[in-house]
Design brief:
By secondary structure, the protein is of the alpha/beta class. 69% of the residues lie in helices and 9% in strands.
Length: 375
Amino acid sequence: MFGRIAPIILKEFIQIRRDPRTLAIVLAMPAMQLLLFGYAINTVVDHLPTIVFDESRDAQSRAFAAAFHNSGYFDLRAQAHSRAEAVAAVDTGEARVALLIPPEFGNHLLRGQQALAQLVVDGSDPNTAQTALFAAGMVAQVQSGEAVASLAERLGRGSAASGIELRPVVLYNPSMLSVNFMIPGLIGLILQFQTLILTAFAIVRERERGTLEQLVVTPIRSWELMLGKIIPYVATACMAVGVALAVGRFWFGVEVAGSLPLLAALSLIFLLSSLGVGLFVSTISQTQTQAMQLAVFIMLPSVLLSGFMFPREGMPFVIQQLGLLIPLTYFLQILRGIILKGVGMEVLWPNVLPLALFGLAVFGLSANRFRKRLG
């Protein structure tokens, strides 16, 4: 029996050897999945970027801010010069948390009076916000107990001391509903999926059927052929975004706080990069199976490293830097900035600029490669 099966086995190995691209993807995929799942998936939220506005500027306020940093949950990135600057850092995404300490904080502690402080938290990611609130509450409770004990030891009385009260304010998503966080991310993911998969499959399908060669010999320029192939999928992706926004608004109650025209314009910039990647996949794939494998190979890092599901602050530094090479990383910041925060270009441009540069580069390279394949 083995003698009859052996030729079939040998034939299949030969077929696998003749398709090195598929073999490379099959062998590389498990390693990539292990690395990404091992490093990128981290449900522990810590090292949150934090900005401090300290008007008290004394030993007590500095010790209170240092306690936040020492907890491991907060990374004190900068000192703000005003309350507006601290809140603006949360708006732009430079900080997830702002700690605001009023002028009389230290004096109130020394007198045994209640010392107030405010914590401003970016609530667009409910899991991160809940962790920040819990950790900050624990830090404030410990520091309050230490301040009361120190005052009691110094003055010989403890009941009159009030300690520290931390008053939190959750911005953008006060109710901390997860749907408000997921809907903008899903819009970005749908947009990338539509353009990447459909563009790559459409061209490969033409090549498999032999109709692409028929189009090449027609009196049409290569760029006109390329444009004619991708415009329908741009329209399809735009309609998909419109449907997603409508469902998010009327079914889930997620309103767009910012400008819809700005959202549409920046979505077109993101489309440029996704179309470029789709064109690139089409030029190196011979079959639809190869195109699907390459698309999955590209989509997996986009989902895990862009901040769609897991906060990027909890990832190792190297993984965070790899995430900066993914267009969806920037587009998610744009989507959540416009939909949840209502911010404009004055805040979003640090994400728009690299997204536009990446889109122009990858689309240009892919279009040039596509024209060469047509030639």
